[in-house]
Amino acid sequence: MDASVLTISPGRPIRASVATFGALVWSGFRRYATYRQATIAGTFTNIVFGFLRCYVLLAVAAGASGGHPGGYDVRQLAAFVWVGQGLLIVTGIWGWTELADRIRTGDVASDLLRPVSPVVAYLAADLGRGLHGMLTRFVPPVVVGALVFPVSVPHRWQTVPLFLASTALAVVGCFGCRFLVNATAYWLQDARGPIMLWTLGSAVLCGLYFPLRLLPGWATVTLWIGTPLPGLLQTPIDVLVERDPSGRQVGLVALQAIWAVVLLYLARKVQQKAERKLVVQGG
User: Fold this and answer.
1) Phi, psi of 2 (to 5 degrees)
2) Which residue from 107, 176, 180, 235 has the highest number of Cβ atoms inside 10 Å of its Cβ?
3) What is the largest distance, in Å, between two alpha-carbon atoms of the chain?
């Protein structure tokens, strides 16, 4: 293969850059498709925890005045749980420490010698991972939940396209957050502290354990506008269960897009600053 095809930069033909990016996405998909037993075991675990979470939220709904905690009815709460269990691996909130590990061992030096920026290469691989998760880890929990519990289904024609766009933006936004957390290893050498803080905080503030709409209104608005975390899980779920009117659905997805762009920009700037740091130190 011609080495020039492996370059993604403004100076290269768009066709070559797109082909290279697609090849990197496909490689990420194939990498995770290799671990079939892990996929089956992880799906089973998601389903088990889905039952636990669903019964807890349904109990909350039964004890709430009016039976609509946070504005969700029983069917929407059930769908919230099972869609969230399916999206948990698609967005990939937890478990990615590859960049931090390569920085700690020094293997990141080989990444810097490649013609593709580390941000682009890792993003493409993560999109492939997300696509694999969508095909293998999203469908089973949703199907099981729909068979056992009464779940809401979309009634608006634009809901499914918006959900797919929202899910893609959630994958990109989550990658940006994880890249920034991992990149702290450039300065700290060991990023286990920031990664642990991210693991504990993101699960709560992205809407995994409970819908963020259960919080006071001011806290919900602050989280949605001031942080990208609700867009990593809560937004695509709310879009699919049609928690909000159509106009607000579009607004939430647009906010996701803004945060995705901001996070990728920050990831690029942090990577550039880290590379300058390595050059100055002779690394």
Assistant:
1) -65, 130
2) 235
3) 66
User: 36-63 and 74-91 helices cross at what angle (nearest 10)?
Assistant: 150
Residues 6+ apart with CB under 8 A from 169: 231, 253, 256, 257, 260
The string of pLDDT tens digits covering residues 28-61 is 899 888 888 888 998 999 999 999 999 988 888 8
Query: From CA 148, how far away is CA 252, in angstroms rounded?
Result: 30
Return the SS3 of 222.
helix
What is d(CA 26, CA 32) in angstroms, rounded to the nearest whole number? 10
Residue that the structure tokens 């990444």 belong to: 111
For the chain, helix, strand, coil in percent to 5 are 80, 0, 20
pLDDT digits (tens, 9 = 90+) for 207-224: 888 889 888 889 989 999
Interatomic CA distance for residues 101 and 108, integer angstroms: 9
pLDDT tens sequence across 88-128: 889 988 878 899 999 888 888 888 888 888 999 999 999 99
Q: For 58, list phi and psi in degrees, rounded to 5.
A: -65, -35
Between the alpha carbon of residue 25 and those of residues 45, 57, 94, 138, the distances in Å are: 26, 37, 20, 19
The residue to which tokens 């499914």 are assigned? 160
**Look-up of token digits 């906010």:** 255
What does DSSP assign to residue 241?
Answer: H
- CA–chain centroid gap for 164, Å, is 13
